[in-house]
């Protein structure tokens, strides 16, 4: 007797008609026609079953604060930073917890069950860290939340930035963050990368830095990040987030930079929705897309992740907690048009992001956590095209969210009475 069996699932790797058996919160078998009964059985015939979506780059201390204290009328990064500076002194622990929990509810409804959030440590009150540490414990039964100590105003630039970050890590934040391009000088930025990597090595923590989030091709702190990663023996434990300046760098320099990143086993996390909105703001035409060089990084064997970054906050007035929306934008911005490209984008939203966060026991193999999402789509390509409805969300073998199938009733003479958008893709025998 299994606790749960999902029957006749389509898997992201292309297998169809596969059963997934679960016992005691773990997957115990993934194969066709598993014999035996279960306390709960779900028929997933014709539906894609995937590990949960993962967001390796988010700002939960700011989420759902749109309009406080006013709107970002220019939609620019700098006005967003200015707005956050106005809002931050008014933040209260209770308000931060309420907004964060509401966002976690939304995330679960979207099959998003692991999030890495950057937490601003520039205000020495550290009310952001205090609140999100409580939220991390509150949501642990249904969502994995990692917290990055993020010196939003600059590790050296903020008056008490160095001491505040150390205190935040002492409080129990999980990851060392940074923002070298926001220091007063390039030299200060370089020094901050070295100092923060040293702290991570001494404390045995991973690193996740906002790095080169600018159109300036001379912002090259990712090179320093890769070099310091190797120097401190942090290979595989460091994420460079945004990396938008790489979009504007000359190809010769990039031909040197990417192999260095690969040697350091750096993870590169782009944020397609935000990068396409905030970058290129000083351009007339043509306007730069601003997202980092995703296909080239993938070709070099670098693990690439995609983050949501912001949802309804001072920097981004849109967003829905939907990682398929993030992937949908990435396909367009990076011009990843082939079927193989789209399958890779889906893999990034799941396995690639999980690798960037260092999640254990993640996946669809026996022994993995029984965390699953059933989508109203037959495969990964269709899930991205449709930004498919999440029919069932499962955490450790327990159903924690359900959404009815999205169907439309028609009243048209001589036409079908119902439309299912997930049934419209051509029945191509070989997508390749």
TrEMBL record:
TM segment ranges: none
EC id: 3.5.4.1
Annotated organism of origin: Devosia psychrophila
Keyword Manganese: no
Keywords from the UniProt entry: Hydrolase, Metal-binding
Protein's name according to its UniProt entry: Cytosine deaminase
MF annotations from Gene Ontology: cytosine deaminase activity; isoguanine deaminase activity; metal ion binding
Domain Amidohydrolase: from-to ranges: 41-400
Taxonomy of the source species: Bacteria, Pseudomonadati, Pseudomonadota, Alphaproteobacteria, Hyphomicrobiales
GO terms classed as biological process: cytosine catabolic process
UniProt signal peptide: none
Gene3D superfamilies, per database record: Metal-dependent hydrolases, Urease, subunit C, domain 1
Pfam family, one: Amidohydro_3
